Amino acid sequence: MRNFEIQLGHLCNDRCLFCISGQLTHQRQAPLLGSELLVERVRTARAAGYDRLTLLGGEPTIQPAFLAVVERAVEVGFKEIVVFSNGSRLARKELVDRILATGGKFEFRFSFQGGTAEAHEATTRRKGSFAQLLRAAEYVGSRDQKVTINTVLTAANYQSIPALAEVVRRTRAVQLHLDVINPYDVPVLPESELKAMQVWYPDLELPLLQLALALPRGFDVNVGNLPVCVAPRLAPWIHHGGPTTWTVSAAVDGRRALPIEKDKYGDKGRRKHKRAECRSCLFEASCPGYFARYGEWFGEAGFVPVSVTRIGALVSDGAETPVGGHEWARIFLALRAALSDAGLDFRLEPVASDAVRVAAQAGGSHLVALASVSAPRADARAEGASLGVESYRGDTTELLRWLKVLTAALGEPICPPASDAFGLRSPLQGRLERLRAAAPFPPLKWTRTNLSQSTLECYFQDPQGAEIQLWWRLDDDGVRGGYRAPPKPGPQTLEALRSLLAALGKAPAAPRFTNA
């Protein structure tokens, strides 16, 4: 989606330490913007092709034009509308109900400035704001609406961050974003106050790790504005920038105006700095650096490039520290070694606590894949690596060679890839997917898969090295299938074969199997 953000005004009933809107409101310098101005700007944004709209403040829900803007945004066809709120008015159920009655698709993004009431209110400087916010988020979640959470990390709240895991549970939130404070966001404050609210980056590592490990596996949690080098264990959760987003903010000089929009992440990136040594860091391509003002306050000695040696240390010291990134570190090292040995140009990027994206190229061929460690099955039968191809172009022979290199680096896969890894679908796809979902089939080892528009062949090996084959053929008469197995399979092999056949379920047109 194309993202557009509009600030409905600076008026806010919180006075957050890091926010210019609260400061302007406190100083009675936050002008009210007219409904016609805001509604027209929403209309022109939609006409320009933007389809996701975020409503910002101050606190957007207390701006007089809020409901008029929501109604207009729904009317002109925004596919999703994000309400970025402190929950002060959304704690009133009737306002939530009025928003939902417009018929739009909404995301409610709540500003939890700490995991506890004490930390949150030390930041917002409004007593009772935490309970009010929690009540609003719980009600929105109970209405089956999308709830996400945003937190700005400051000296007043960072130690409470692990408690946000309970907030996520209570609100049914689906995503949590934590931003290291931007020291350029509140130009009206003296430098001494800005420095006092800034957290020394290395102090963030432990509370953020504790939070990430307390959340459900695979939960979407990400940290912004934190260089990977100060806390490489957090690499899977650190994300710089985002999809291109244009923001139009209310004027800060008392005018009732909307200045020209700006590129949100591009503007922020221009205030960041890199050392010359950063060019040797494994994350150099994806990291825009650190805020220059932070470097002036705390020095640059802590910004040490991340090397393969440092990544390897994450794997070896697991008994000492609760590190959630061991899975991606192992994948990272294995893929790097395999791709280097194969003579391929590549780039690796951790994208989750247990996943790494790999982009490899040679000549005119290009491959992007996602390698991950699968969670243990409920019956604890296996935990293994998986590989999915996200995109490719070029010579298929070369691409298949890369796929072989990648799978070898990850170890023997539970389910070897087939041609559908490259997006090639087959009428027999459903049978293959049912087998994959039920795998593994001990003591059999799934060795290879051949899939085409008319054929599916799955090969397995028993403990004695004998081969078992399941096959299907699609012809004018429908689907035929069968299996080939050793003449006298052992009891375990026979049981595994029964599991294979049972995994196919009662699919329509399921073939009758014969040992032929």
Tell me the domain tally. Answer: 3
Number of strands: 19
Question: Largest beta sheet: what is the strand line-up?
Answer: 7-6-5-4-3-2-1-8-9
Point out poorly predicted stretches: 318-323, 375-382, 506-516
Name of the CATH class of the largest domain: Alpha Beta
Number of helices: 16
- How is the main sheet built? 9 strands, mixed
Q: What's the mean pLDDT score?
A: 84
Distance between the termini: 52 Å
- Label the structural class: alpha/beta
Short description:
Helices cover 31% and strands 22% of the residues.
Structure description:
The chain is built from 16 helices and 19 strands. α2 (35-47) packs parallel to α3 (66-75), α12 crosses α13 and α13 packs across α14. It has helices at 20-26, 35-47, 66-75, 93-100, 117-124, 129-142, 164-171, 191-197, 205-214, 264-269, 292-298, 308-316, 326-341, 396-410, 429-438, 491-503, and strands at 3-7, 52-56, 80-85, 106-111, 146-153, 175-180, 220-224, 245-248, 262-263, 272-273, 290-291, 345-352, 355-362, 365-373, 385-393, 445-451, 455-461, 467-475, 478-484. It has a 9-stranded mixed β-sheet with strand order 7-6-5-4-3-2-1-8-9. A 4-stranded antiparallel β-sheet has the order 12-13-14-15, covered by helices on one side. Strands 16-17-18-19 form a 4-stranded antiparallel β-sheet, with no helix packed on it. The chain folds into 3 domains: 3-298, Alpha-Beta Barrel (TIM Barrel); 324-414, TATA-Binding Protein; 424-516, Double Stranded RNA Binding Domain (2-Layer Sandwich). It is globular, with a radius of gyration of 27 Å. Helix content is 31%, strand content 22%. By secondary structure, the protein is of the alpha/beta class. β2, α3 (66-75) and β3 (80-85) form a beta-alpha-beta unit.
